[in-house]
Amino acid sequence: MSSIIVAFSTKRQLLDALPALRTAELGEIETYTPAPLERGPSPLPTVMLIAGLAGAVAGFFLEAFANVAAYPIDIGGRPQFSWPAFIPIAFENGILAAVLAGFFGFFIVNRMPRLYEPVDQCALMRRAMRDLWCVAIRTQEQGRVRELLRKYSPIRIEDVPE
Q: What is the pTM assigned to this prediction?
């Protein structure tokens, strides 16, 4: 499967071409732009919330299990299930779990690290992060892609080296 990269001079041209590329289902599409395109909400905050709550609950129950069932110690007549003492550790475990989920989730959501991508060898990529709006298409049907994109007047169409 080969790839091509297409450069547009404005964001509007790229946004006009993307729906046509998606509906044609010619292959995998990836954009390279100087400013972020509007996307839907990220799943990362929800993942972090769930991980934080799960970490807090797990920390609380682990401490409760250790003090009540696994290793009960009578210290000065205090009750075995002294739950107020478990809250700070449960909170810290929740924060730790949320931070770890956010850290690793960031890499997963952004598909990192990708140490080598063939599209980086293209001449268009040198300007893609400054002033060009580019889209890379991995497809078997390069002719159809070129024909479809000509009506959106791209600046240049370049083959991606394998």
A: 0.70
